[in-house]
Structures are given as structure tokens and as C-alpha cells.
Amino acid sequence: MQKSKSMAVIFLLVAFVAGAALGYAVDHMYGRKPGQHGGRESMSARVARELSLTPVQHKSLDSLMERRREQLREVYRPIRPQLDSLDKVGRTISDSTHAQVRRILSPDQQVKWDAMRERARKNFEASRKRFNDRH
């Protein structure tokens, strides 16, 4: 029984880290407009700096990256409803699993677990808002 609980916690931590990594990747792929920093240097600005691009090259890079974003937006448009539906199912599973994990934790651990989840949700929702604002 203890082994099952340990495996469940390990699985949840892996799922949590994978979800955070996916959110981070989506944020970096779709989350910022050219030149927008959001507390970090934009990809466009970093490339321009590292490659010592001229202003003309930088403007061309921004145009190319915007075109890429538009193309990706079109690729995902037909499957967006399915992704939204899967997101709802995923949230239901996540909520159920969160409650199950809470049952095996001490009260102090539950507080920390809830805080970890809330931080992850806030980060995910901020990434999703930036993504949706662009699409």
C-alpha cells in the first residue's frame, strides 16, 4: 500500500513538472509579442543582441516571427474546440488527483501542496491569457 502511495506521489510530481514545462514552452512560443519583455528579454531582442542584428534585420526577424505565429494559429484553429474539451477533462482529473493526494498528506503538507497547486494554476492561467489574447 505504501509503495502505491509513493508511486502516486511520484506520478503527480512528474505530471506537475511536465505541465509546468509545457506551460513554460507555450508561453515562450506564443506568449509574447515581438519586443515585449514581460520581465524577461524577448526572443527577438535576445536574437538581435546575440547576433548583433542591424535595425533592418531586427525588423525583418520580427516580421518573420509574426508570420510564423499567424501560421501556427491557423494550424491550431481547427482543433481548438477539441483542445478546450480535453482541457476540461484534464482539469477534472487534476482536481480529483489533488484531493486524493491531500488525503495522504499531513495538515502542514496539505497547506504546502495547496500553495504549490495555486502557484502552478496562476502561472498556467497567465500563460493561457497571453496565448488567448494573441489568438
Overview features:
mainly alpha; 135 residues; 5 helices
How far apart the termini lie comes to: 47 Å
Average pLDDT metric = 79
Number of strands: 0
Beta-strand residue percentage:
under 5%
**Class by alpha and beta content:** mainly alpha
How many alpha or pi helices? Answer: 5
Low-confidence stretches: 32-38
Helix content: over 70%
Apparent shape: elongated
Pattern of helices and strands: HHHHH
From the alpha-carbon coordinates, what is the Rg to the nearest angstrom? Answer: 19 Å
Largest sheet, in brief, is: none
Task: Describe what you observe in this structure.
This protein is mostly helical. The protein is built from five helices and no strands. Helix 1 runs parallel beside helix 5 and helix 4 packs antiparallel against helix 5. The longest helix is centred in the N-terminal third of the chain and has 29 residues.
Brief characterization of the structure:
The chain is elongated.
Secondary structure topology:
Layout: H1 2-30, H2 43-50, H3 55-76, H4 80-104, H5 107-134
